[in-house]
Prior knowledge:
This protein has one domain. It has helices spanning 35-53, 62-69, 74-88, 98-104, 114-117; strands at 10-17, 23-31, 89-95, 108-110. Helix content is 44%, strand content 22%.
Amino acid sequence: MSNENKFEGLYIIGYGLSGGFGGQRNFMVVEAQNEDDASQVAYEYACEEYEQYAGSHGLRDIGDIMEEDGLENEEEAIEVYNEERESWLDYSAEPYSKEYEKKVSGYHYQNDYKEITDVE
């Protein structure tokens, strides 16, 4: 029996928006070189989720910021947008484990690596 971790390189990432959005509610298994890389993937998914809501649900888009803050410079508005977005993001990356998978599988959960992770 090999001592090699058959799940090496697999991580479970979580992402979502904090506050009334409920935090991390989406989880998926990803392949990455290390936990920092997996965390970067989770960050990118969280940003995409934010962008889906920007302009509604109390999350301002660049146009809202320019209008409400009286900004004429789009670069300034983008800076404000990025700062506001950062305050809403909720994301994480954990090395894959059956225990953590069980913990998050009740949420929106996707595992495209079942052929690897289902092997005992």
